[in-house]
Amino acid sequence: MYNTNFSFDHAIRPIIHGILDLIYPPLCLVCEKKLTDQEDQICFSCLNGFQLIGKEHDKFSIPGKVFIEKAWALFVFDSAFQGLIHHLKYSRRRKPVLAVLKHFQSEIMGQIKHTHYDWIVSIPLHPRKMRERGYNQVDGMNAWLCEQLGTAQGNHLVRRLKYTESQTKLNAEERQLNVAMAFGVVNESEISGRQFLLVDDVLTTGATANELAEVLINSGAQQVDLITLSTPQ
What is the pLDDT of residue 106? Predict the structure, then answer.
């Protein structure tokens, strides 16, 4: 039997979307200019304006030993990218970051594809922070990396034990103290001898990721690397 409801819905939906686009045209999340039909979330001008760093990160300012073997901070944390991160963390706008990753896919994969990873792990949020925000802002990037590298997501292997204050106004030493003893592991048998890639949004001193890397290394991990969306220059 012919489904008239389906045909009507299929026909009317583009009209409704067209009317909404006329009243509320889709705007670039970064510059707020009207998007073309070929653009999604972020205009091509802003996408091409993001500064891809294109090399390993080597500017850790952590007191003491660095447990991270290799690290990549993909983009310069300028005002445009800062706005993108703000939307990611506080406005539930997760798709734009995926648009950036897709746009620079070949360049990003060219940097990290030479290492095999057993697990890709998002830096975990404390349960209280997870309740406040409702999601971990880097889980989308984690899932994208898992798909690109054919690697399993290992978020179930780690947990945040301590609710920490914002690191924003702290110096390197204070950041390290703030995150001390902040992480724990859930199942050492799935960690021993494995290679990990940690995922975070911004790399400043690296104190938070290094604290988790130390916990993983002490639990038997063979290697812990780090990838973040951005870093200040």
Answer: 96
Nearest partner of 136 among 123, 147, 146, judged by Cα: 123
**For the chain, what are the domain ranges?**
1-46, 50-231
Give the 3-state secondary structure of residue 95: helix
Strand ranges, E, within the chain: 71-76, 119-122, 152-153, 158-160, 183-185, 195-202, 223-231
pLDDT in tens, 91-108: 878 888 999 999 999 999
Query: Which residues, listed in sequence order, are joined to residue 72 by a DSSP beta bridge?
Result: 227
Whole-angstrom distance, CA of residue 212 vs CA of residue 158: 9
CATH number of 50-231: 3.40.50
Q: How far apart are CA 146 and CA 148, in angstroms?
A: 6
**Interatomic CA distance for residues 201 and 81, integer angstroms:** 11
Q: Is the pLDDT of residue 182 over 60?
A: yes
The two three-digit tokens of residue 40, written as one number: 């999604």
